[in-house]
Structures are given as C-alpha cells and as structure tokens.
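Structure Section — protein described below
Tokens — whole-number codes for backbone shape
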Amino acid sequence: MEQRYKNRYLEGKYSACSTKWPHIKGSLKMSKKQVIGSCLAVIVGIVVALITPPQGLTPPAMYGLGILLWAVTCWMFEVAPDYIIAMAMCTLWVLFQCVPFKTAFATFSDPTWWLLLGAMGMGVAVSKSGLLRRISLRVMRTFPATFNGQVLAMISAGTVIAPLVPSMTVKAAIVAPISMGISDAMGYPRKSRGAGGLFGAMYLGFVLTGPMFISASFIGYMMRGLLPQDIQSQFTWTLWFTASLVWSVVVLILMYIAIRFFYTPKEKDSLPPDYAAKQLAALGPMQRNEKITAAVLIMALLCWMTEALHGIHATVIALSGLVVLLICKVFDRQDFRSGMGWDNMIFIGGIINLGSVLPVLKIDKWIAQMASPVIGPMISNIYLFIVVLCFAIYAIRFILVSFTATTAIFTVLFVPFAQQAGVNPWITGFIVYVSTGIWHVFYQNSTFLTSFYAVEGKMVTHRQMVPLSLAYSAISIAASLLSVPLWRYLGLVP
C-alpha cells in the first residue's frame, strides 16, 4: 500500500499545487477497484435517475441526483482523476437538461473561483521565490535549540506563515524537509520519537492551522463559496479568524501537549547553535523576487483584514496581487501554466457548482425535509449536533477519501438544516472542514501523504503518526464544543 502511494508521489501525483492524481498519460489500464467502482457508479446513477420522482422532486432533479451519486461513487473508488469526474458531472447535468449551462458552470464566473486563482498565484510565488523557507528558518532561529524549543518553533513558524500561503500541500512539501534536516542535525535517528515529534510539530503548524484563516487553504475559499450569498459577504477574513479563534487556540495548545506526550525523546539533544544561521547564509541575501512577493503578501493580507473599512472585495485584492507578481515577473508564463494546479482549480470549480445546482433542482430542500425528523432534534442542541457531525465525517472519510469532495458535499447538504435551526451555515461548513483532516489510515489524507513523501518516507512511519491523528480527532471535537460560547456571542448560533 505505502509503496503504491510513494510511486504516485514521485510521479507527481502529490505535487505542491495539484490534486492527488496526475494528468492521465500512458496506459489506460484500470485496477480491479476502479473497474468495480465504474460499474457500480453507472448502476447507481441509472437506478436513481429512473426512480419515479418522490413528492417535491421532478424528473430532471432525479437525473441530477443520479449524476451526483455517480460522481460520488467514482470519487470513492478513485475511478479517474478528481477534476475529470467533476467536469464530467457538470457536463452531464447540461447534457441531460437538468439545469442550464450557466447554472451547471456558474462557479467559473463567480468571485470565489477568481479569488482562488489569485490566491493560488501567490502560493506559486512564495514557493518559487524561496520566501517560505527563509521565513520558516528566521522564525525557528528565535527559539531554543532544544527539542521542546524546536517543536514550538515549527508550530509558531507555521502559524505565522499560514495566512500568507493558501495551500497546505505547498507548505507541507517545502517545510517537511526542513523538519527532517533539523531532526538529523539534533542527532535523532530516523523514525525515532524525536523525529516523530518534529514531524508532528511541522504538520500541526503548517497544515492543521489551515482552518484558522480563510487564506491559509483553498479549502476555506471553497467552503465559503458553497454558502448562501449573504453568508459569503458576511464572512470576511476578519470574521473568519475571529469565529475560528477558540478552536485554533485549543487545538494548538492541546496538540502541542499531545506531541510532547507521545514523542518527547529520552535524549537531551540540542540543535547546533549556528544551524539556522548557516541555513540562512546558504540562501544568501534576500532576492528581488522574495522582496516583491513579501510586499504583495503583506499588502494583500492587510487589505483582507480591513475589507470592512475600505470595501474592496477580497477577489479584487487577490487578483491585483497576482497581476503585480506577473508584471514584475516573479514567475513566468511557464510557471503560470504548470504551477497553478489547474486540475485543482477545475475540480474545485466543479464542486462549488453543487451550491448552485442542488438549490435549483430543490434537492437540498428535499433531503432536508426527509432527514429533518432525525437531524432536526440534534441540530437544535448544538453540542449534540457537533459531536454527531464530527463522528459522521470521521466515518465517511474511510470511504470518501477526497478531502475537497467530502467538505463540499456535506457543507451543501447541511446548509438547509442549519438555516431551519437558526444556526449560521458557516458553523456546519467549518465543522465539516476541520473534521476531514484526519489521517487514521494511510490513503486518507493527500496532504499528509505529501509531507510524508516530501521526506521520501524516511523521517517517520505512518503508524508512528496514527496516535497524533486520533488525538486530533478528539481535540477537534473538544475545540468545537468550546467554541460555542464565542459563536453565540457573535450571533452564529441561537
């Protein structure tokens, strides 16, 4: 199993700005799992499409629902690259006259998609310029050279950088080798407790802080894009940060304690005092492209934070930053073509279209009506609802491995329930978002795999990191429950 995923990574399937699949090339042979998944997807889609529409739905709605379930089944069995399935889903909606073309592909003219484009461009600039590595080393240099000091350094560096780079995979791919270099310099054997602790601290700081800021991951932009328009306009960068603050602080503190508990080595080794200085010296003085990128990122972040004051839309800010980076030639046409993760962009665009298609077909309201006798009483008790929803997402992640698809589908499905109960739909989207980040089994999390194979699987074993994933599952639930008083204060829950 691990060798199969290693080969995928080395072939580019887990590149910094791409989904877990590459462009199809070479052989079109399918595995037994893919063949079974293809057949099952077609059967499920046809059966659902031909069912007599229940009250509240129309024949086009049944076709649309059948196509959606076909796509979900394909994602579950990894029948084809995610973006191809998403594009096929939208095309089939038009082909079978479920919705007009403008509805099926509405996202690609939506501000959310263009905001993501601008943010992705900034991520490319950070990666290519070397700025991410330089900032990480500078932050780490300010902390003690001990194991505990470097764990705190990794967490702090990741938290500082998180809002500046909208891709968790970029951060994981670039910083994981830095964590291994620090581990080696401290004298910890590969796959030891000390190495595991530094890897876990890197993952906590640079990946698990993603939900803290909307600008820390494209998943945040996607999730917000699935919410009703009035909610989207409400959740500026500042409100997102404020609403996620309690969750973030609890996760950072308790996960730090978990890392110390599981991975503190018996040895009292220290990092050579001049290690970070030597690494920075090797980078040389700050280059032109780094300075331009840093200036653009800082200005964009400041503008996002103050959007309520100046009224400039976040999308305009992101695209302005991208234009400046292109004009200044921080990255060139080739980088724009190959580094932007266009497969990811298409996939996310297709997924966000669920937010426009399902309401038009009234599928979301029908599901809400059918499930309300069960879910209604639970969502009226916000604490019970959080626990049940978290466990539901944990369970579904064993069969639906796409981080993005899971977040999108469940966010859309739970919006009607939230609105009926007077709960802000952002709450359900956020809980789904943070719950998808587990890595209990090896195939479950492409971002974890990116960081794992960025060090060629030499630093830690997956089994070694499972206790930290289990700890995150429990801590995330606790953090969500502790966030309820803040959410009440902000008027997000009754």
Remarks:
- Residues 21-104 form one domain.
